[in-house]
């Protein structure tokens, strides 16, 4: 298994798919280390250790390359969420990029408006996203939301829901600025440390739970997802609305 994993790592490395190859190198190295522990033949141990050393050196080089891409603003990571996949709560997607220096967040999502059911509402999902920001480790002081207006009678519910979130955030020292656009179609989240995340379905990529007392109703990590793609970029100059 270790040999197959590092073989895959080399293939990905040669294809310049460095982020994926790094993961495979790390997994392969761990598996080969287990083989070394279980091998009694000293000659085999020596050969394994040589190979492991080579793979570790390459993995370190890839880490440095990825870090340089981040610093140069050329970093791009893509996550594919499969249909019915679980384990993709907001912390899973965003926590890695929410360093302590993050103080300002921009959310562009045309569908932060539905309030019909707490289990599937985009407004409730936005609230969950805000809760994650409040918990830290970042020190968010300002959140900018750009969305579209709900039509008909739902508009007042949308406004009331957003104002309630706004007031609640104020209690935690966070300002929520709300703006509306009739032409918005992009879904994008940006942090003032330079990270930008684009999710094909925006924040609303979770499926409706089977019932109010089913697993996944409260914990989004356990909630099945719709198929979507998440693209993560880093740029030195995050644009502002």
TrEMBL record:
InterPro entries: MIT_dom, MIT_dom_sf, MIT_domain_contain_protein1, MITD1_C, MITD1_C_sf, MITD1_N. PANTHER family: MIT DOMAIN-CONTAINING PROTEIN 1 (PTHR21222). It holds the Pfam family MIT_C. The gene is Mitd1. This is MITD1 protein. Gene3D superfamilies: MITD, C-terminal phospholipase D-like domain, Phosphotransferase system, lactose/cellobiose-type IIA subunit. Residues 1-71 form the MIT domain.
């Amino acid at each position: 298994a270790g040999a197959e994993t590092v073989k895959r790592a080399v293939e990905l490395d040669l294809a310049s798919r460095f982020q994926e190859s790094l993961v495979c190198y790390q997994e392969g190295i761990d598996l080969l280390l287990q083989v070394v522990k279980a091998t009694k033949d000293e000659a085999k141990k020596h050969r394994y250790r040589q190979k492991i050393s080579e793979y570790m050196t390459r993995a370190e080089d890839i880490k440095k390359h990825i870090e340089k891409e981040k610093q140069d603003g050329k970093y791009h990571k893509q996550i594919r969420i499969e249909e019915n996949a679980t384990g993709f709560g907001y912390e899973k997607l965003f926590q890695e990029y929410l360093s302590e220096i993050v103080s300002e967040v921009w959310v562009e999502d045309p569908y932060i408006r539905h309030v019909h059911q707490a289990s599937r509402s985009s407004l409730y999902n936005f609230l969950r996203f805000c809760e994650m920001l409040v918990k830290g480790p970042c020190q968010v002081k300002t959140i900018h939301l750009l969305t579209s207006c709900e039509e008909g009678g739902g508009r007042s519910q949308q406004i009331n829901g957003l104002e309630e979130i706004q007031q609640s955030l104020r209690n935690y020292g966070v300002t929520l600025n709300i703006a509306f656009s009739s032409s918005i179609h992009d879904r994008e989240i940006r942090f003032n440390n330079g990270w930008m995340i684009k999710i094909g379905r925006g924040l609303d990529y979770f499926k409706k739970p089977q019932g109010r007392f089913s697993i996944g109703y409260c914990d989004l990590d356990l909630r099945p997802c719709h198929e979507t793609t998440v693209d993560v970029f880093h740029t030195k100059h995050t644009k502002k609305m």
